[in-house]
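Re-running the complex after MR caught last week's input typo. The corrected sequence lines follow. Everything else is unchanged.
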Amino acid sequence: MRLSSKLLVSAFILTLLALQLVAIIGPFDDWPFASNSMFAYYRVPGEPAYDIAILLEDETGQVRRLDPVRDLGVPSADSFRRLVFSRWYGSTDPAFPQGKYPDDSRAAFVARLTDLSRKIVNVIRRRNPAAPAITAINIDLRTMLPQGNGWTSQRETPIGQYSVASDQFSLLTQ
Amino acid sequence: MLNLLWKRWDQFWFSSSDRYQYGLFRILLVIGLFVVAWDEWQFGNLSALSSAPVEFTAPTFLVQLLHLSIPLSPELVTPLRWLLRILILTSALGLATRFSLIALATLNLYLNSLINSFGFIDHATTLPSLTLLVLALAPGVAQFSLDALIAHIRQNGWTFPKAFKPLAGSFPVWPAHLILVIMALAYFSSGYSKIRFGSLTWMDGRTLATYLGDPRPADYFVAQPNLDAQARWRDGVGLGSFVYSTGNPTRLARALSTSMPAMALLSIFTVLFEITFPLVLIFRRLLPIYLIMGVFFHVGIMLTLSLYSFYSYLVCYLLFVDWKQLETLVVRAIPRWMRTKSVESV
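Corrected-run output:
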């Protein structure tokens, strides 16, 4: 190989490896450079898992759970679950590979959930203008316990409520 | 000092060997990834990406860097899918091989970047996609191709198959070594993450037992352990991560999950295998051992979780099979077998 070809290939090698190392050290879970942190958080059998329930209240007074695929047109409910957590809810771990909020505060959290709620309302309105208008969004945390072949909800903790009229998310947790 | 470093670098990446059959690996990788995994990699469901709202996207680094537009434009879905099919065919057959492979690797990076821009990162497609990109630029990748056959016939007349030797030739090792380094980093990062986020206690087997025993689906979140009360201000719990998808645990998995010693052993094996994988870069004799352990690791996941997506890593292993030695063994074995047959018939 000629020296110029070797230098070109070396630059290619170094670029790929540098991007991969940044993903590992970051850590960042991106594609195709990922920190591969699947299943890394410690868990104990029998301990609860948690569900973030997004509930829609419309002008007729009906309350129902958001179905992200049907209501918003996202490719899958699982990707939406991860997206909501990474981009808006935020992990308590400042090193969480799919979204970092090291200096998070109540004000920043409220701003993010206001943004999420506003986006949900806008997309639903755009996709289905004839449907009853959404008036509020409630976000609850449900404590889920494994029982037999399913999960049972043990407790519901309201995180907060978004009012479409005031365009503001109010935190209910202390 | 710089001279010595360059010499080492040059030796590691740019020496030549007849060990790596990039042409044969091209066929195996393209067929293994695209033909087998068309649905698994969601290429069959591209239209779902075109109707997704732009508000609910998480553009990957490449999408942001190259200013790619998400979601995919609806009128592009069918032409892109056909282009992908054509490039898969020409890359596997080896027709305009270099161009086809570079185009296929680029299109795959583009489509997978879009697919992974909605919150879900498909880790099973990262290593194979980078492998395809490296292979597209590898010398000798047009071996075992229609291009090579046509060139052979033009030069020597119709002497196929007698004089056509698709496994001949010696090529620079940098593509194989780069793929191996990326593979080693992928495994290492996975093991390192378990220690980083789960600490050494991850190896006590409880995390694995929980994942195997979870009812399905388990589309929930987990609390970050040992968090002080102040840090739980969002919800009183302190969510650390989401629960990852683990396919559908089989009866074998459910049975294994009740045995804590078995879970602990499997957890220790997993972390040690992943974290020490980079040793193969220093001690090359370890590579076959690690690849065999890798086969057990991935096949074990398939058998216990019915989770097949990481078969794509096994396809990447095929680059490191010594095909010339295998060819010699097969050629030697055939006459012996025929001789045995003829003796039996007498």
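None of the earlier attempt is carried over here. Chain A has two domains: 1-40, 44-171. Strands of chain A lie at 49-58, 63-65, 134-147, 150-163, 168-171.
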